[in-house]
Amino acid sequence: MDSPLSRPALLALSLLLLALYLARRHLARGKNRTYPPVAGTVLHQVLNFGRLVEYQTELSRRYPTFRMLTPTCNYVYTVEPANVEYILKTNFANYGKGVMTHDVMEDLLGDGIFNVDGAKWRHQRKVASHEFSTRVLRDYSSAVFRDTAAELAGIVAAAARGAGERLDISDLLMRSTLDSIFEIGFGVNLGSLTGSSEEGAAFARAFDDASEQVLYRFFDLFWKVKRFFSIASEAAMKRSVRTIDGFVYAVIDRKIEQMGRNHQEFAKKEDILSRFLLERERDPGCFDNKYLRDIILNFVIAGRDTTAGTLAWFLYELCRNQRVQEKIAEEVRAATATGDRDVGAQELVACLTEDAIGKMQYLHAALAETLRLYPAVPMDVKYCFSDDTLPDGYAVNQGDMVNYQPYPMGRMKFLWGADAEEFRPERWLNDDGVFVPESPFKFTAFQFTGGASHLLGEGVRVQADEDLCGRAAPPLQTRDVGC
Fold first, then answer.
1. Predicted confidence band at 20 (pLDDT cuts at 50, 70, 90)?
2. What is the residue range of the signal peptide feature (predicted)?
3. CA 80/CA 91 separation, integer angstroms
């Protein structure tokens, strides 16, 4: 991406940052607080935007916790697991999205779980805990992913039989995971993998464009001005959001119409939107269409890019590591009892039972190793609500943006050993070849990523003791949910 600021603007910004830093140092004199070292400014990040995660990794090797200066606040970055646990668990209430992050992402994510704090966050966490603990949704989502995987495998097989046809695997994975997660969320197949729906294709393009623009906003000091005047990138953002909203609200309206025509048949539907609409019928004040749109789009954005990106890197590493590829293939053949037979995608999918997947310990390790080196969310930011001191002794101020960094953490030798940058699935297995998980504050991939199903991943334990609308409900089994 081109820098969102011109070089004169960058020069002016650097001078402003230097003045602010000197002023803050002057004001801080006499206070007995130790702040993280300054490793640079937002100017340096903009100049290294094309290799930002590598740049942050280089800094993290020098400073496990450091600051980057901006015109409005400090950005604090850390790779210390003790700090991560403190931010995400021990003092969780003091670190949230904050106003700035909410403003940047509101047009796309609205008041969904990844963009709110407090009561709305707690309510949606209970929604997630309630819904994703049900066997019905797990079985439904597994079936959707299997069907889409078979469809994807068919496309790849057809290309392999062709005369030198090239495929963009990353693009195919993006489209297939969007189809899957959208069908789980809204009960509608977008058809983006096959290109069978023009409306679905338009939604997918708008979704991609809006997601990209949200990232740019974090580095563009003038995005609000552009939005106010509806110019440049923000004009495109408005068009994308209009397309997204039009499509999603049309799906919701059709669902409501279906429910009115045949309620008994509608009650059998297993997608998240249908279940929410049935719950709202019992309590009309529970949530409106806007809240439904926000909740489910957050699940879609959580499950789409994260899953597709991880699979792309996984295939990349298999291509680079023939030994790992062969071990996984051998394990899959043994677990599915397919032996050396040449089976088609449909037959293999039918063999992928929960029991068979549970036997694939090396595959599990290879996926974990992929996420360690290529986490779908390389950095995650939290807003500090009040002055605090991190476990490593460094102070943070109210208003600071505190980042933990999964990508650099996966490359730290003090965490993973001298071979930290090597792809070695065996590091996750014990002597019996059984997968052994790491601390979720050292291996942070599931704190944010992995789709809606991973909301029941590793992390803090909560009790889902209310139903979707917050009423008391029969106790559910306590489950682990991400932070």
1. low
2. 1-30
3. 15
